[in-house]
């Protein structure tokens, strides 16, 4: 059975519990990253990087491929043509994705010039047409990720109107980045930090629309913060913190999904990822393609700096170490042992 056929079997097997999810992050949440994160949490909903309809329809690469182990996994599409969005949603369902999400939040110039992303918040009817066309084409959920506003369209009434128009087209799930986007004058990076967070606006949306599923995103760095948000909304999407400190997901399954299955230790994850790297046979695959997502695995742990330095120094170049992860772990342990020996001799 092919990977695509295996993936198709997962459609409809169980409803997605979207309590916790990891944000779609361009150049970060690729299939190797998602496989790695799935080793830490069995239930967290994972998202692809945004992929444009043009890439899927006209590109030569396999922009929808993923590992069967990644479920539950959603694909995020960038586009604004209803026919193209429906066509790509249909392809995504055929591949076995559990959800298809529309990007109405990315503020980059490249996205804006392509008439999709955050600029679509000024065109709710276009988003509504896309939702309607996509829902006619697929059975999996069609969701929208948006901001609370853009530029001078940043009052609650503007935000509420966007939600109302899109919801009336049939969308019942919105993931809201609790910052507006400045499309004029700020870079995409600045748009992740400079516009102030406004969590109460997202809470107000849920209060006004209890029938909708509302997830919150933006600036969330701890599970304690997550607990607070879940008092007001249905789900929490965490972004950069998961990438910098991926083992934060180790508590998620028991805490939010009542799953007591033992979580893999960091060392067990290293072994599993080394095995994953060894299995790759794509002609252009290099260990660094997977390893780069693991720099933060030992964040806050003794030897974490050694881990990051070893991977960075030995993971790239013309002849990367094929046993990079195994050797990085060994280097970390060796450094820790030398430190212990030094302390012991100093005490003696």
Automatic annotation (TrEMBL):
Mind listing the UniProt keywords for this protein, alphabetically? Flavoprotein, FMN, NADP, Oxidoreductase, RNA-binding, tRNA processing, tRNA-binding
Active-site residues annotated for this sequence: 106 (proton donor)
Protein's UniProt keywords contain tRNA-binding? yes
Q: What is its EC number?
A: 1.3.1.91
GO MF assignments:
flavin adenine dinucleotide binding; FMN binding; tRNA binding; tRNA-dihydrouridine20 synthase activity; tRNA-dihydrouridine20a synthase activity
Task: Return the InterPro entries for the record.
Answer: Aldolase_TIM (IPR013785), DUS-like_FMN-bd (IPR035587), DusA (IPR004653), tRNA_hU_synthase_CS (IPR018517)
Q: Residue numbers for the site described as Interacts with tRNA? A: 103, 189, 192, 305, 308
Domain of life of the organism in this record? Bacteria
Q: Which reaction does it catalyse?
A: 5,6-dihydrouridine(20a) in tRNA + NAD(+) = uridine(20a) in tRNA + NADH + H(+); 5,6-dihydrouridine(20) in tRNA + NAD(+) = uridine(20) in tRNA + NADH + H(+); 5,6-dihydrouridine(20a) in tRNA + NADP(+) = uridine(20a) in tRNA + NADPH + H(+); 5,6-dihydrouridine(20) in tRNA + NADP(+) = uridine(20) in tRNA + NADPH + H(+)
The protein's matches in CDD domains, at most eight in alphabetical order, are given as: DUS_like_FMN
- Name the positions where FMN binds: 24-26, 76, 145, 177, 217-219, 239-240
What's the cofactor?
FMN
Q: Which Pfam families match?
A: Dus (PF01207)
Q: Kindly report, in one word, the top-level EC class recorded for this enzyme.
A: oxidoreductase
DUS-like FMN-binding domain location is: 22-325
Outline what the protein does.
Catalyzes the synthesis of 5,6-dihydrouridine (D), a modified base found in the D-loop of most tRNAs, via the reduction of the C5-C6 double bond in target uridines. Specifically modifies U20 and U20a in tRNAs.
Q: Which HAMAP family match?
A: DusA_subfam
The family note in this entry says: Belongs to the Dus family. DusA subfamily.
Name it.
Answer: tRNA-dihydrouridine(20/20a) synthase
What species is given as this protein's source? Marisediminitalea aggregata
């Amino acid at each position: 059975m092919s990977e695509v056929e295996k993936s198709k079997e997962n459609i409809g097997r169980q409803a997605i519990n979207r309590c916790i999810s990891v944000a779609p992050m361009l150049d970060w949440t690729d299939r190797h990253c998602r496989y790695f994160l799935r080793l830490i949490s069995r239930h967290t909903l994972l998202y692809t990087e945004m992929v444009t309809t043009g890439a899927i329809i006209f590109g030569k690469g396999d922009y929808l491929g993923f590992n069967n182990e990644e479920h539950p996994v959603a694909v995020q599409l960038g586009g604004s043509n209803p026919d193209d969005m429906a066509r790509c949603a249909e392809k995504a369902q055929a591949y076995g994705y559990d959800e298809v999400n529309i990007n109405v939040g990315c503020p980059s110039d490249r996205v804006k010039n392509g008439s999709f992303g955050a600029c679509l918040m000024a065109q709710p009817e276009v988003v509504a047409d896309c939702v309607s066309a996509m829902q006619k084409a697929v059975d999996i959920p069609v969701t929208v990720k948006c901001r609370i506003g853009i530029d001078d369209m940043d009052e609650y009434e503007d935000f509420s109107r966007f939600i109302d128009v899109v919801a009336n087209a049939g969308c019942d799930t919105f993931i809201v980045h609790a910052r507006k986007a400045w499309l004029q004058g700020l870079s995409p990076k600045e748009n992740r930090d400079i516009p102030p967070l406004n969590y109460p606006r997202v809470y107000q949306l849920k209060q006004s629309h209890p029938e909708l599923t509302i997830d919150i995103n933006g600036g969330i760095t701890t599970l304690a913060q997550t607990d607070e948000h879940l008092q007001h909304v249905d789900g929490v999407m965490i972004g950069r913190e998961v990438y910098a400190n991926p083992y934060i997901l180790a508590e998620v399954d028991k805490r939010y999904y009542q799953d007591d299955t033992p979580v893999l230790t960091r060392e067990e994850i290293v072994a599993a990822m080394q095995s994953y790297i060894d299995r790759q046979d794509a002609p252009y695959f290099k260990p660094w393609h997977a390893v780069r997502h693991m720099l933060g695995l030992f964040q806050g742990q003794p030897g974490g700096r050694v881990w990051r330095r070893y991977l960075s120094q030995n993971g790239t170049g013309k002849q990367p170490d094929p046993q990079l992860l195994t050797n990085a772990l060994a280097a970390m342990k060796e450094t820790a042992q030398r430190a212990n020996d030094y302390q012991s001799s100093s005490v003696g």
